[in-house]
Each structure stands twice: as C-alpha cells, then as structure tokens.
Amino acid sequence: MATLDSYESMVPTLPVNQGDQLAGPPATPTPIAEIVAALRTITPLDGLTEEEYTWIASNGSERVGGDRSIVFRENEPACNMNFILRGEVQVRRKSGSIALFIGRAGSMTGKLPFSRMKNYGGEGYSVGNVWAIDVNESLFPAMLAAIPSMAQRCVSALLDRVREVTRMEQQAEKLTALGKLAANLAHELNNPASAAQRSAASLFGELREYGEQKYRFGNLCLTDEQIGQYRDWVAKARARMSAYTAFPKTPQSPLATADREEGLIQWLNSHNVPKPWTIAPALAETNLPFDVLDELAATVAPEVLPIAVATVASSLRVERMAETVVDSTVRIFDLISAIKDYSYMDQAPIQDVDLAQSLENTLVMFNSRLKNVTVELEFDPELPPVSAYGSELNQVWTALIENALESMNDEGTLKLRTHLSGQLALVEVWDSGPGIDDEIKSRIFEPFFTTKAPGRGLGLGLDTVQRIVSKHSGYVSVESKPGATCFQIRLPLDRGGAY
Predict the structure, then answer these.
(1) Same structural domain for residues 467 and 384?
(2) Same domain? 359 vs 490
(3) 0.85 exceeded by pTM
C-alpha cells in the first residue's frame, strides 16, 4: 500500500478561489493514476482491486483547500461520501467548542450508503491543506454494483461512527454535569468558609476588648458580696437565654432586629451607659429579655453598671463568633462527608444502597438552588437497601432533580418519595413545573433529544437515566400534567438484579 510520503508531491494545486476559504475543485485536475495511488492509503478501502480503485477515482470529484478552509457548513444538506487523501477535517457545532468529529487523512467519511444522515451536524473546516475525493449520493447504487464489498465496508464505518460520536457526546455531558456540580459545591462551601474567616478575623480584636473590659471590671475592687451578686445575675441571665433555645429557631427579620437594637440603645441611655451603639448590637442578636437587664441595674451600683453591661456584651460577641467558626467548619465537614457519600469514595463499586440517604446526599449538591423551592421528603422507613452501583444511582437522582428544578425555574415544589412496590423499590421525583407536552413525551428518553437552548444541554441526561436503570434490571416511567410531573424509578430488591 502506498503511504502519504510516497504521494506528498502529488497533491494538486489549490483552486483559484482559495481566498474565500471554501474548499473546491483544484485549478488543474489530478491524473487518475495519481488519485488511485492516493486512494490506496484509505484504510477502509484496503483490499480493493485496481479496477475498483479506478472506478472511485474516475467517478469521484476532487476537492482541495488551504488551512481553515470551510469543507461544509452546519445544517447544510449532506450529499457526498468523502475520502480524505490528505490533511484533517474537524467538525464543531456553533453552540460549543468541543470537536464532534475529526476526519484525518486515510479515512472514509461523509454521507455513506445506508445512512439516514440528512444535514451536517456541525461546521467542517480543514486543519492544514486538505485533499479529498467526493462521491455524490446519486452514484451510490452504481458504486455498490461496481464494488460489492463497499456495502459491508460502509456498514462497519457507520457502526464505528455511531460509537465514537456517542462516546464524545456522553463525555461532554459528563463534563457539563461535573461543571454544574463543582459550581454548586463552590457556592455551598463559600458561605460557611467566608463566615468562619470573618468571625476568626474579628475574634482576635474582640478578645482584646473582652480582656480590657474584664480588667476594668476587676479594677473596681468590688467586695465579695458584690462579685457574688454579679455572678449570680450572669448565671441567671444565661439560664434565661438557654431556656429560649429549646424553641424552634426562626430567622428574625432585619426590621425586628433594628427595633430591638433601638430599644436597647434607649435603655442604655436611660442608665447612663456610654457609647450605647457599640453595646446594643451584641445584645440585640441575643434573646436576653429587658427585665433581666433591669435586674442587673438593680443588683449593681450605678457606677458599676456601664462596665458590667459592656463586659457581658463583649462576652456574648466572643461566644457568638466562636459559635460561628464552629458551625461553619461543621457545615464544611458535612458537605465533604456528603460528597464522599455521593461519590461512594473509597468504597466497592456495588453497594447496599439506602435510597433515602442517597437522595438526601444528592439534594445537598443542589442546596444553592433550593432557596425558593419547597422540598417534601416522603421516605418509607421499612424500605430495605438496594444492591446497586451507588455512584451511578446518584447520577440518576442528579439528572432527575436537575430537570425538575429547571422545569420550575428553581421556584415551586420538589417532592421525593420512596416506597415498596411488590418486589421492587419505587423512587418518585415530583415537580410542580408546567409539565411535558404530549407531543414530545415519547421522545424525552431518546439520545441527543433536548428542549434546552443550544449550548445548555446535549440531550443525554434522561438517556443516561434510562441506561443506568436498565443496567440495574429496573425501568423508568413518567407521568405528567401541568403542575405535576412525576418520574418513577423501579429497582429490584434482589441482589442479583443489580448485576
């Protein structure tokens, strides 16, 4: 077989219209013998007779182009079978930067016999100088008659093409999902990390202030009885504040906080406490009642009250900062733990999966999108674990929850349910979105079918769901009407069903 080096000098001169960057016929046609020599480098044609090579060279049309020349445009009708004799052709969609296909010298591509290809799925352009032979689809019957083995060669090429394009699309879908997961995770980690950083930075200055207030308090040289009364008051105040912690915490509105702070400033002013605006904010953030402050004013001397109140406020500020640091770091560790559980890190591929825990771990990844979403969880406590590929099931939950949130524009009700259905575990993902049109309901599980805008999705999410569920010997179904869409996943409880 001839090699590229052996016919490098045979490459025809570029067409006169090279300046418009469109690949076209050469200025001077190449002799048939030289085209045949170049066709012998096409791997899928290996084994053809001299007459069969000559038929392709005689009936095909030459096309050449310089670097970055347009070979075909996206959505343009596909009507030619291409044999790339030199150079490389890359295909990209306008909405993305990932190459969908790369055709190199020695390959047979384009529209092949038996293919249902109608239009080009992207724009094809050359990398380096390109030289190709095109066979128009109108000549396919004659080509198959003249070269009988082309039928099998083309079918093999079509199967290879489907596998390669599917692999690239699935890889792109995984990268997209990974990017969304990383963005959600970064957002979730940023909140507690920022809070811990701010509190830690302020804690040093507040500790110094607290030490100064304690020094001033000790410098008053109070009697043992006065110190005992103050300490008793502090213990009583803390007991009163602790009593409130047993009740459910509800976020206090900024307006209510401002009103409480204003009331504290008035109380401090009425008791001649200097700089009340520095003390009131710390007390306003607590549930310390005003009557407890009145008890302090009655317990200590008027000249002691300002220092006593300032000491208590500084102490509360330090404690709240320390609590913020602890709570934030706990939140970070909880997120890391959820990620490890979500990905089944350091565990065997097949797990006894607690479906409720698996769904909750997945929800953690979407916390940043759930601010305006009401989440309802209905998990059957009697549902036994399912033997499954845990990390793959989480891909299913991720795809379904993300679809639900997008259908609702991150506003509405999301309901997750698990219960036993015969010998199957049933998982339901409900959303209150507008529903799925009956016209497309039968197509939503097709590979590459998507209703999203170009560049926002490849249409492999639900296809991945169906593929993974089928791998576990389960099945997926959907019921939809406006305001209520439900995806149902049924998985076998039998351990052998997950293999």
Answers:
(1) yes
(2) yes
(3) no
